[in-house]
Structures are given as structure tokens and as C-alpha cells.
Design goal:
This protein has one domain (about 5-120): Nuclear Transport Factor 2, Chain: A (Roll), CATH 3.10.450.50. Helix content is about 30%, strand content about 50%. Mean pLDDT is about 95; it is low at about 1-5. It has a six-stranded mixed sheet with strand order 2-1-6-5-4-3. It contains three helices and six strands. β1 and β2 form a beta hairpin. The chain is globular, with a radius of gyration of 14 Å. With about 120 residues, the chain is of the alpha+beta class.
Length: about 120
């Protein structure tokens, strides 16, 4: 079902999706973020001692409140694809002054990759 060439296409599509995520961080655009996340996507991680977990709308609200991260630096991206499931890890520095390790799960639905969950680690300042 998934030949080697198709796997390369999947990686290219996922890389482009994650670049949209990074670009949205830099620009502050919620309109760019929304379509790359599935409507049932979730977010989870700690902000200090507090668990920040729930629907992805929480992330959109946080992003709107914090504004553009114009100086965001994206590190290496690690992508793992198996059929219609994938995971991505990316290091992000200076997202409005914060450093994150982000872990995403993605699903290919109707031939389109979407993020289903975002789990993050907020590095201490």
C-alpha cells in the first residue's frame, strides 16, 4: 500500500505542514494554524507546575494572547511515518521568549496530513 516513493511524498507533505506551523508561530497567524490541526486535536504539557491540557483551541488562544514569535528558531525536525500515522519532534527556541520541545502525532485523513495532538515540554528559563 505504501511504497518507498509514497513514503517520501508523505515526508515532504509533513515537512511542509510543519513549516506552516513554524511560519504561523513567527507571524502570529491563527488562520494558518487552524487547518493543520484536526478539529479534535489536543494539547498537553506543563507550564511551571500547572498542567496545560485540553482541546487545541487552548493553544490557539495562548498564541493569540502571546502574539507573533518573529525571532522563532526551529531546530532539527525528526519525522517517523508508518502508513497513515506519523510523529514529529521539533525543537523551537525563542517562541516569544520560550524554548519548547514539541511532539506531534499526525494522521493522514482523505490523503491529507493533520496534527491530532501536540505534547510539549517548556524548558525552564
Amino acid at each position: 500500500m505504501n511504497n518507498a516513493n509514497q513514503g517520501g511524498d508523505d515526508r515532504a507533505q509533513i515537512t511542509a505542514l510543519m513549516q506552516s506551523y513554524i511560519d504561523a508561530g513567527r507571524s502570529g497567524s491563527i488562520a494558518t494554524l487552524r487547518p493543520i490541526f484536526h478539529e479534535l486535536a489536543t494539547i498537553c504539557g506543563y507550564v511551571g507546575p500547572d498542567l496545560f491540557a485540553g482541546p487545541i483551541e487552548m493553544f490557539f488562544d495562548w498564541h493569540a494572547d502571546n502574539g507573533p514569535a518573529a525571532n522563532l528558531v526551529a531546530g532539527d525536525m525528526r519525522i517517523d511515518v508508518e502508513g497513515s500515522a506519523a510523529s514529529v519532534r521539533i525543537e523551537l527556541d525563542n517562541w516569544t521568549g520560550h524554548r519548547f520541545s514539541d511532539f506531534f502525532t499526525l494522521v493522514k485523513i482523505d490523503n491529507r496530513w493533520q496534527i491530532m495532538s501536540k505534547v510539549f515540554y517548556l524548558h525552564p528559563e
